[in-house]
Specification:
The complex is a heterodimer of chains A (425) and B (390). Chain A has 425 residues and is mainly α. Chain A has helices at 3-10, 26-47, 55-80, 88-106, 109-133, 138-160, 187-195, 201-212, 217-235, 237-247, 249-254, 259-285, 297-307, 312-330, 333-357, 362-381, 387-390, 393-405, and strands at residues 180-181, 215-216. Chain B has helices at residues 3-11, 15-19, 27-51, 56-67, 70-94, 103-120, 125-154, 158-176, 220-236, 238-248, 250-255, 260-277, 280-287, 298-308, 313-329, 342-379, 384-389, and strands at 183-185, 192-194. Classes of the chains: A mainly alpha (425), B mainly alpha (390).
């Protein structure tokens, strides 16, 4: 120990004044959820768009959020290990075919689930070989895998499903579906409450009924994967090592971490999760495999992950949001999404007030205020939104979130940077 | 300058540098990579064909025989001109590390609006064509400028924003292509499309291939001119130098006085403008209207071809020709009861293996260079200083 080190240690430790930081805790989360329910309830009462909080819409929202969330989780695993995975879409497409084929071939939906995961993982393996072993640029490899995934899947569906009774070149016969569960004894009571159309009570009943009844077992499995991923990535030594490969692979290697192994593992899991998302589409969301079934959901999953700032909780919130807008669009889309504009206007207005009062950022508040008024004017002047535009709600949301918050997002430091064993820095 | 230092300098370049053609590979070796990839893809395809019970050599022979007949060859050339323009648009971005995945949305929106404007106005022949091309360029550039602004002003990655903008362009397109707005019913079908272009906007074809009942789209000349322009602007102008410098090393570009943000903005817009042209050979030479069955997916094809051709205008031309040839020649497979999708697998394999092959060739060159250096070092102390710096 040197003299300098000792004096430094003796010097009074001055805690730098910590800036007040917003932290997400359980009370905050619960009150935010409560506020959202009240807001939706008010909007439903004002606009009469019953589907905003109906059990059917909520149920559909969960079902639509699952494939997006699974793809997002896939993105999370691989990007946490430093491998950008644009190929999620292609792996998901593989999953749709594998899921349907497995379920039909073995006559068991869970065989399909497993097959979907394996199919996606094969795509992941290809991505890992290209990016980790050969050091190919991640985005280019991902684009190539998307091309390849679609080609392989279309080819396979032609040579398998075309000969099956009830199937065709681009469509499989109906598949066996995983079982559906409900929390017993609450369905009828909640349905009665919901049909009353009382302020707040009926809305809550609709939301609870949508969440707890007629839920596919596959959905339960998928939702369980979110906390599981959090646990593995943030609470185990394996997860710490995996994330260190995404932050600073050279440092990880100097500590004896096998960077290649962890990257491979991450990308394989990533592909399997995307494949599960694809299998969910063909087994649960639809009744059969159809060509082009994913409709870019792999990309939306990636967007949900960015929305969630590369964290499982935020990713789940993003997936839910996108699933919800997707569900509204399917259920009297024009009316429901139009009602959502009012929610957006109120939220932006609230943000403006917060900026003015709590943060004293006048200029930002004025801009937000103008935006809120603009959204409200659009809401007041139109009566419905063309169906073509309701389908792109997730994409527009992603662009808005990115343009407003791109500076505050923090991806893993070595995300997308090629790494070779033994490189200098 | 010894070969050793050259190899050493390349070791410091990133993969992107080598892939984007910013580092020169040796003449023969740079050809070896795509040839290797195509052979490898052929092998994979043969294995798949064998597994599904089709004779691989015969199948490919049939494809080549059919593909080289005058009519399919003409069709392939027509496809290739669109592919070429799309790949050029992607390549412009690639040369400075921009991934314009949004070419797909840009060309479709541009073709739709250009077709609608072209159908609504009447002008003398050359002016009419020029007006349509101008609209297409403006729309393509305008749509790309959204991603450019988001990148420059808000730091949003162009990869994500262009993917999202593609989906939004699809929605906007299907909203516009409605009988209440830009579309009319196509005579004799239940398809809808924009008002067909008048004769003054139809570019006459060129009877390039003898014995073919079809003519080659006149705008293949536009594709060739754009390729030439791409070469001249990138390699012979100050702007092109700045662009390549920014792509190769941003700090070095800043030090030499390049405004990187403006460069990103300009490049993205030029890429979008060229992307706007990608649908024009088809629109002005064959379909004369943007309808529901306007060819989709040109943008993603462009990415694959730009990679295959290593952003070199001649290489891209070969890539576009190969892609178009595979597309048209696969039509014969259906008659032989083989799924034409086998070609999609072949294409995907080519792209994936060509990028791996470039990397392998590059690694081979580095290790060869290192071996040469170590041999020279053991031979005498003359090159020691150079060797050490490498």
């Amino acid at each position: 120990m040197s003299e300098g080190g000792l004096t430094l240690a003796k010097a009074p430790v001055v805690e730098p004044p910590r800036p007040r930081r917003f932290r997400v805790t359980w009370p905050v989360l619960l009150s935010a959820f409560g506020a959202l329910v009240v807001l939706l309830s008010v909007t439903r009462a004002v606009t009469g768009a019953a589907d905003l909080t109906s059990a059917g819409a909520i149920n559909a929202a969960v079902a639509l959020a699952v494939p997006i969330g699974l793809a997002g989780l896939g993105g999370l695993w691989s990007e946490r290990a430093g491998v950008v995975n644009i190929g999620l879409e292609g792996m998901m497409v593989m999953g749709t075919w594998c899921g349907a084929w497995g379920a039909l071939h073995f006559g068991n939906p869970w065989a399909g689930v497993l097959a979907g995961a394996i199919g996606g993982a094969l795509g992941g393996l290809l991505h890992a070989v290209a990016t980790v072993t050969f050091g190919v640029d991640h985005i280019i490899s991902g684009v190539a895998i998307n091309i390849l995934g679609v080609g392989v899947t279309e080819f396979l569906s032609k040579i398998t499903f075309a000969e099956m009774p009830g199937g065709g070149d681009s469509q499989s016969p109906p598949v066996p579906k995983p079982g559906i569960v409900s929390v017993p004894g609450i369905g009828d009571g909640l349905a009665a409450l919901e049909s009353g159309h009382w302020f707040l009570v009926s809305d809550l009943a609709g939301i609870v009924r949508g969440l707890l009844t007629n839920v596919s077992l596959f959905t339960v499995l998928a939702i369980a994967l979110v906390p599981l991923s959090y646990y593995v990535l943030w609470r185990t030594a394996f997860g710490l090592r995996l994330r260190s490969c995404g932050e600073r692979p050279v440092a990880a290697e100097s500590l004896g971490v096998n960077v290649y192994f962890h990257k491979y593992a991450a990308v394989l899991v990533s592909g399997a999760l995307a494949g599960l998302g694809g299998a969910f589409l063909s087994l649960v969301a639809a009744t059969a495999y159809r060509e082009g079934q994913t409709g870019g959901r792999g990309f939306i999953g990636l967007a949900a992950m960015i929305f969630g700032n590369w964290r499982p909780g935020g990713l789940a919130a993003g997936a839910t949001l996108f699933g919800y807008t997707d569900a509204l669009q399917l259920r009297r889309g024009g009316e429901s999404v139009h009602a959502l504009l009012l929610v957006v206007a109120i939220l932006v207005a609230a943000a403006a007030v917060y900026q003015l009062v709590a943060q004293r950022r006048t200029r930002a508040a004025v801009i937000s205020g103008i935006a809120a008024v603009a959204v409200f004017v659009v809401f007041a002047l139109t009566s419905t939104i063309p169906s073509e535009f309701t389908s792109v709600a997730p994409h527009v949301t992603t662009l808005l979130v990115l343009s407003l918050a791109a500076q505050r997002l923090r991806p893993p430091a070595a995300d997308g940077v090629p790494y070779r064993r033994g490189q200098a820095k | 300058m010894s070969d050793g230092t050259a190899g050493g300098r390349e070791a410091g370049s990133t993969f992107a540098d080598r892939l984007m053609g910013r580092v020169k590979l040796g003449g023969l070796l740079s050809l070896a990579a795509p040839v290797l990839a195509i052979v490898f893809a052929g092998l994979i395809t043969s294995v798949i064909l064998l597994v599904t019970g089709a004779p691989p050599i015969e199948t490919m022979g049939t494809m080549v025989d059919y593909g080289l007949q005058p009519r399919p060859l003409t069709l392939a050339l027509n496809l290739a001109s669109g592919y070429y323009l799309s790949a050029l648009a992607v390549a412009i971005g690639f040369r400075m590390n921009l991934f314009n995945i949004g070419v797909d949305g840009q060309y479709r929106l541009a073709a739709l609006i250009a077709a609608a404007v072209g159908g609504a106005i009447t002008l003398p022949a050359p002016l009419h064509v020029a007006a349509i091309l101008l609209v297409a360029v403006l729309v393509g550039a305008g749509w790309a400028s959204i991603a450019a602004v988001l990148k420059v002003r808000r730091g949003v990655s162009e990869v994500i924003s262009t993917i999202m903008l593609n989906a939004i362009a699809t929605a906007l397109g299907s909203w516009l292509l409605n009988k209440d707005r830009l579309a009319v019913e196509v005579a004799g079908s239940n398809n809808i499309g924009t008002q067909p272009l008048g004769p003054s906007a139809q570019v006459p074809g060129i009877p390039l291939i003898p014995g073919s009942p079809l003519k080659v789209d006149g705008l293949i000349i536009l594709a060739a001119v754009m390729g030439l322009l791409y070469y001249v602007v990138l390699n012979r102008t100050r702007f092109g130098f700045d662009l390549r410098a920014t792509g190769r090393s941003e700090p070095a570009a800043v030090a030499s006085g390049v405004n990187v943000k403006r460069m990103i903005f300009t490049t993205m817009i030029i890429s979008g403008a060229v992307a706007g042209l990608a649908g024009m050979p088809n629109l002005l030479g064959e379909s004369y209207s943007y309808s529901l069955n306007f060819p989709p997916g040109l943008g993603f094809t462009g990415i694959a071809i730009a990679l295959l051709g290593r952003n070199n205008p001649v290489g891209i031309a070969f890539g576009a020709a190969l892609w178009a040839f595979l597309d048209t020649s696969s039509n014969i497979l259906q008659i032989h009861d083989i799924s034409p999708e086998i070609v999609e697998i072949m294409k995907g394999t080519i792209v994936l293996s060509v990028i791996v092959a470039y990397e392998l060739v590059h690694r081979y060159r580095i290790s060869a260079g290192q071996r040469r250096v170590s041999k020279e070092l053991s031979g005498g102390p003359k090159v020691q200083a150079e060797g050490a710096s490498a």
